[in-house]
Amino acid sequence: xxxxxxxxxxxxxxxxxxxxxxxxxxxxxxxxxxxxxxxxxxxxxxxxxxxxxxxxxxxxxxxxxxxxxxxxxxxxxxxxxxxxxxxxxxxxxxxxxxxxxxxxxxxxxxxxxxxxxx
Length: 118
Prior knowledge:
The chain contains six helices and no strands. By secondary structure, the protein is an all-alpha fold. It has one domain. Helix 3 (33-50) packs antiparallel against helix 4 (54-70) and helix 4 (54-70) crosses helix 6 (94-114).
């Protein structure tokens, strides 16, 4: 799956460091870096208060997944269409369940790409 995903990618998969993630996000979702920086500030406050690196690791993973999806335009379009459907359809509509399944499938695949299970 990785080769097929990378073939249509706009940019290479970045390292999971804040500078690499910020640079990649600016390339694939230019409207979102301010959101990322604001979230980073909040996460670092929580991490400091909790004396834990856990929140920082989760922040990096979240944004790595976002970038993994956004760097592949076809996958990003599928996700955004499914998100719109999930937000507008009635939960009793079978299309709502299909949209939710599509969202879960895309997120799970992106997560597996950026944090593979050994």
